[in-house]
Write a structure and sequence with these properties.
Chain lengths: 261, 475, 242
Amino acid sequence: MTADRPRVGLFVTCLVDLFRPSVGFAAVALLERAGCAVEVPAAQTCCGQPAYNSGDRADARAIARQVLDAFEGYDYVVAPSGSCAGMLREHYPRLFAEDPVDGPRARALAERTYELTSFLTDVRGVTEIEARFDGSVTYHDSCSGLRELGVREQPRTLLASVAGLTLTEMAEADVCCGFGGTFCVKYPEISDTIVSEKASRIEASGAGTLLAGDMGCLMNMAGKLQRRGAKVRVRHVAEVLAGMADGPAIGEGAGERPAEG
Amino acid sequence: MESTARAFKDNARAAVADPQLRRALGHVKVGFIEKRAKAAARLPEFEALRDSARDIKDHTLAHLDLYLERYEARVKACGGEVHWCRDAAAARDTVLAICRRAGARTVTKGKSMIGEEIGINDHLEANGITPVETDLGEYIIQLRHEPPSHIIAPAVHLTKDLIEADFRAHHGWLPAQRSLSEARELVDEARTVLRDRFLAADVGITGANFLVAETGSSIIVTNEGNGDLTQALPRVHIVLASLEKAVPTLEDVSTILRVLARSATGQEFSTYTTVSTGPRRPGDADGPEEYHVVLLDNGRSEMLGSEFRDALRCIRCGACMNHCPVYHAIGGHAYGWVYPGPIGSVLTPWLIGVEEAGNLPNASTFCGRCEAVCPMRIPLPRMLRHWREREFERHLTPAKARWGLKLWAALARRPAAYRGVTAVQARLLKAWAGRRGRVSRLPLAGGWTAHRDLPAPQGRTFHELWAARRRGVAS
Amino acid sequence: MTDARTDILAGLRRSLGRGGGTATETAARKAAESAVDAWIYGHERHLIPDRSKLPPDQQVALFVRMATEQAASVVRVQSEAGVPSAIAEFLKAHNLPPSVKVAPQPVLEALDWSSEPLLEVAFGGAVASDRVSVTGAFAAVAESGTLMLVSGGDSPTALNFLPENHVVVLRADQVVGPYEDAWDRIRAAYGPGTLPRTVNFITGPSRTADIEQTIQLGAHGPRRLHIILVEEDARRGQSDGA
């Protein structure tokens, strides 16, 4: 690890903000332990993916400009989400390709933006995590993180160092879970077919807990597993890495605590 | 071919509920995906070859008019003819005229997506000429009066027992008590039945994977040998090809061939790669006396100048659909027209209109697997997004979705208001879920809750908690 | 009304920004023409896999390995004198009647068929009742175990496809590494920009996976492809397949 103390702007993501703030706090903890000074710009709401993927470039640009403004000046921008990080890194430059002012700003932001686990390993050089998690987990590779950002080994490297944790791979870990933003509600039967397949793979892995790095995927898979009555618990990978995996898992109420597997 | 793309949602709904289709599609995943991965891993230069192939096609497209002119000159120099056709109707009429001049009664066909696109089989039949599909998969679906469901494996949606039933129904002259439950027996029967058709045909129609400008050649790629029997035995050979099939030289096509079979079926090279140049030469022992190339535009020349130009690099390998989770769920027929899967979702709106085919580019999670395996590195998700942009501009998106999006965007651009609304939502949804931590029913969220539970929020937003924490630290 | 050819070319040029007659567009068109002619004339090779860049004896070994992987059978004979008996052995091994249809190529006609007096040998094109054909080849590509056959006066294409069994007599010096070397040999034989009516690249026997994605050999083309590889260098003045 380097001796400097970079200023990191945390890109919370709208789903973490609304549904599971504990993931945001876990991300802050991990970043601080990796020697970063973390700030959370107040003027952030969304990365603009819903508008962008619906073909509404104008609104996508407007939201993106807000992000460019809010995250000006940080050494790094880190998101606990492959799809949001991918939006900033891969798509913001395209959104502003022709713009002489915001084009350079978007490219500058893109260069400094990372998904959380790959930031820890690739930029901060973290190889070992000091945390404990007694149980078996399986890891789902979210599509944007995997194919846009190349995130695959990094979360696994970190999980491998967590005391007490066993990682069992599911078959087809790198196949889509069927969330796809508005896709899952526009084409619910197709989405259900895909997520059912994914749920079967998760259950077949025998792991007690499912982890991934994207809340959209996690909520989709958790919702399906729970509708099926599966015992698998679902968490964001940041929670386990930060040693904050003792509260209710995703979709669990305060009273529920199924046996760890 | 008639389209049912407008009924995509209904098609898809029926498809995912069809157990026999799901069983058949299960073979697609194991067969094609594993084989392609093995073939790619075995050739260290595979990734670099994909880049080369993309560059060759980009160069060709940037000079497509000139390469087609040179291609035509070489075809004519060896005694062939090139027929330029603006659209499907012109191509159909051209093929019919050639068949009529040849006095054709039956016509054998190798697999041709352009043939499907222009609906040539129906047209020939309507005019008293019998087309016989010779690719085994195409033959099977011809018996069933179905369109192909995959661009290289047209009968991939069928299980063995369905095919057996079709053969028994249509090959009535064969002994009823014969055994026909093994794939081997089905293939042997098709071989015997089609052998006679090959020998009797007056005209043979093939597609073309490539048109080589340097030599005026057309290239087909098969494993069965049906394309070869189709084009070698009859008096007349007709090639159906669209404009973008052009490739400059034999070296160029060799490079692209290296990535084609590997991407399609995981073979190093297909069993038969055949380069045809003109009719038979004086003194040749066999071969057709006439060679006609029907060169089809049908929207390609305009596509070349659009944001969809990269899709013209497609070499019809099928890798994109082989790896697509949506295709795995619904199969090829649900897409409603000739070209299924990711490439179909890009091409179909262009060829038959986005009003008709608007669902196709929307039925994608943008998982990106298609682009990851496309040998020509076509940025398929980006093209699908371009279609969504066009639909949005033209107000083809359903009103409810548009308004929902506008509302969300308006809120997202106003952080203070956003904070207030989300704080309320977090509390309300948590209260609705109660102690259970998730909801099974939620007004306005039927699309989600029909099949899944919705996890409840933790009850406060991150931003409120963060602000509170900072206040706590500060004081 | 303009014809389709003119319209289509005009549409292409418009899309490429070379549609009009302005000075810039004319200059662009001229530059494009030069680029295209240079590209075709130069027919440059792109990346050739290392696998194909082997010395000749290793190329032959690679060819045998790759062809066998694709379900062709390969036997090696020391000289052409051994070809007729290799054919007879193949027929016996598969319980086929001792009758072959052979391409009327001088090199095949010149084989010592009298060494197999029980073998019925006819020269000519394929008919429906032929069960075994014997042809030569123009070249073979080691890279994928692929044979290259060409049509001609003495090489009827139908012999490669109609019979159930296809025997190919291949000389070791016909084997090249990559496809590009085979194309150069074609250019040397036929001249620039010129090909015979048919060039068949054949890799193993016919097959299909159209029934539940399981491979079955012998769809429409031959069920068996048997390659007799002659080690001795060519000593004849004629070239094959020309």
